[in-house]
Target: RNA 2',3'-cyclic phosphodiesterase
Amino acid sequence: MPRLFIGIELPDAYRQELNPLIKALSSLTDASTNWSKPDTWHLTLKFLGETDEARIPSLKAALAAVDFTAFTLRAGGAGAFPDARRPKVLWLGLAEGGEQSADLTGAIEDGLAALGIPREKKPFRPHLTLGRVRRPAPGDWTPVLDAAAAHEWPPFTVTHFTLWQSTLTPKGAIHTALAEFPAQ
Model:
């Protein structure tokens, strides 16, 4: 069964700036961290997980009916889940477009609920994952998060969202776009 998620693809300007940022951040910690890769970096709106292939046409139809207006998105700020003292995930927040991303996620949740797909229990917290900390190192994570937050990101216009298939491999995930859904 394919592993699916719905997300917003990031522009080339973001992908090109990711590696230099990751290099700078990784020099600030000894923790074992799986850093995001430019070719798979995205904003997740909804993770569907393992999905029966027979459901994909109805998913596409429900997503095609989602009505949203193009909006501006810009990364800004940084944080960690569950918190900065013992981070598992390092992320960038959104300086612009957070509310619109949440509204879009709500519309997607509404459309998929009609297909019997459960809504997320936790509130949507828009973020761009920078890395997953596998083995925390002792020390203060403030310099890492401060460096990530200080990076200036350009605004871009979200004109569509995408249904992705994520194939896990020993070298990392490979994301394949199955369909794009434009703003109305």
User: Anything to note?
Assistant: Helices lie at 12-26, 56-64, 98-113, 142-150.
